[in-house]
Specification:
The chain contains 22 helices and no strands. By secondary structure, it is mainly alpha-helical.
């Protein structure tokens, strides 16, 4: 009998179709998993007020043959961590409900990338991997409240997602070759993936599927905006709508960006693997550049009405911590983590109650986050006299600010030395601008103005608002209010965000007419 026409009573139990009809707009793949968790939270308050007959029916569906105090094993033989059930199984248990919700959220945060990465490796199909992973989380949202939380949620989700992906591939008559590849990977005796061989030395740290996923998403063959979107979506687990809102583009535009990125990976033959040792430094630079860009957009939004997008900074830190943990011998990954933590520590002190910008020298340092500061400085101490790269130098600059009890205690000569090191590595005009500011703070406003004038003559920052803003500040410090007002007006005209314009307007107003 054809599977598609087989009556429902003859179908195998527990094998629901992965593609159960069109998903709501914006809920394809990963978004469906997030939607399932949100729907479960939305449904929960109504359960406490359900008619008694409904609650009784729900109780009878919960392992009726197991007897009191026994829990039916989850599919796949995974043990459950839920405690023995109480005799009054029909009573709503708010504590258990909250525990399931917490477990689902934790699994979504910690396991999404691992489940997707494993399925991409075994199926070779990004869409199937995302759809099956999302369906696994949907199934968890339905079954964990009934059967209990698995003792190993990640293993439960991966096993479930594998079964769902295999079901989907079986239904595709054109996927015979993929099924053969799947068997080669999954069945004993098939050709092993070299990256799966667990070595006894440090190279064994490269085998994690999440590393394959991270390096593929940040491959230099992809455009930078595509790398950022794909990393946040596939590795970070953010929904398409969330990414679109963060970067102020329509959701449909972001969805197409993700589709094009996956198509590029397929058509360009970008390999799903961790680069070999000789290529790792260059490829790691690409990964860290993506994470740094995400963090910078969160630390100081490039457009819009908001000064910061804390959610982006938090996500960048989480992903950087993941990379640093997977590649513990790569000091630049740790240095980038320290840089992000030390900048995030100032979040609460950077914005006024009206949302306005508070510059570093005027911030209330008692509001800086001590946990982030302590961790960031501890990383710098641990790195010690090891290799010094660009992220380490930037982290050292933030460390100098973090170590100063007051703005006047800041060691600007130490900061200038770090910018000298950065300028020796890169001819970026933005590094040159920050170095010029450090010169003025270390050696006086006149020296700073001379450095800025030379930089302006080079023409590399003609439309960048922070060049005239820095000139205005040094003119103010030197006592030349007329020149300062002129530079502030120019900076206001170039400022890209309303928050920065308001700050500059305030500085201009403080100088009087």
């Amino acid at each position: 009998m054809d599977r598609r026409t087989r009556p429902a009573r003859h179908r195998r139990p527990g094998r629901r179709r992965l593609d159960r009809g069109p998903a709501p707009h914006g809920t394809r793949g990963h978004d469906r998993a997030a939607a399932a968790l949100a729907a479960r939270r939305a449904r929960r308050p109504r359960r406490a007020h359900a008619p008694r007959s409904r609650r009784v029916r729900a109780a009878h569906r919960t392992a009726p043959d197991n007897g009191p105090g026994r829990i039916r094993p989850a599919r796949g033989g995974l043990a459950l961590s839920r405690q023995a059930s109480t005799p009054d199984a029909s009573a709503p248990d708010a504590g258990a409900d909250a525990g399931v919700d917490a477990a689902l959220r934790a699994a979504f945060t910690e396991e999404w990338a691992h489940v997707v990465a494993t399925l991409i490796r075994t199926t070779g199909d990004w869409d199937v991997a995302e759809e099956a992973s999302a369906a696994a989380f949907e199934r968890a949202a339905r079954t964990w409240p009934r059967d209990g939380i698995p003792s190993r949620p990640g293993a439960w989700l991966t096993t479930t997602a594998r079964h769902l992906a295999l079901d989907r591939l079986r239904r595709r008559s054109v996927e015979v070759e993929k099924l053969r590849e799947w068997r080669d990977v999954e069945e004993p005796g098939g050709p092993p993936d070299p990256a799966d061989a667990v070595a006894a030395d440090a190279d064994a740290e490269w085998v994690d599927d999440r590393l394959r996923l991270i390096f593929t998403c940040a491959h230099p063959a992809l455009a930078m905006d595509a790398r950022v979107a794909l990393t946040l979506r596939t590795v970070g687990g953010l929904a398409t709508g969330e990414i679109a809102r963060a970067f102020l583009v329509p959701e449909a535009t972001m969805a197409q960006r993700l589709v094009r990125a996956k198509r590029r990976i397929r058509t360009a033959g970008i390999p799903y693997r961790v680069p070999p040792p000789e290529a790792l430094p260059e490829r790691l630079d690409s990964v860290l550049a993506v994470l740094y860009l995400v963090h910078n957009e969160g630390y100081l939004a490039s457009s819009g009405e908001r000064l910061m997008r804390v959610d982006l900074s938090t996500e960048a830190i989480r992903l950087t911590r993941l990379v640093a943990g997977l590649l513990p011998h790569e000091t630049e990954a740790e240095a980038l983590l320290a840089l992000m933590l030390l900048q995030r520590a100032r979040t609460a002190a950077r914005a006024a109650p009206d949302g306005g910008l508070i510059p570093l020298e005027l911030q209330d340092r008692s509001r800086w986050d001590r946990t982030d500061l302590t961790e960031g400085l501890a990383i710098l101490t641990r790195l010690g006299s090891g290799p010094v790269g660009a992220y380490r130098l930037q982290a050292e600059i933030q460390g100098a600010h973090a170590s100063a009890a007051t703005a006047s205690d800041t060691d600007w000569h130490r900061i200038l030395a770090c910018y000298d090191g950065l300028a020796a590595r890169s001819d970026s005009p933005f590094i040159a601008l920050n170095r010029a500011i450090a010169v003025g703070m270390a050696d006086g406003p006149e020296r700073g103005l001379a450095e800025l004038a030379a930089l302006e003559a080079g023409g590399g920052l003609g439309a960048y608002h922070l060049l005239p803003a820095a000139q205005a500040d040094f003119h103010r410090r030197a006592g030349d209010a007329t020149a300062a007002r002129r530079c502030y007006r120019r900076a206001i005209g170039l400022a890209p965000t309303a928050v920065e314009r308001r700050y500059l307007e305030g500085r201009l107003a403080a100088l009087g007419a």
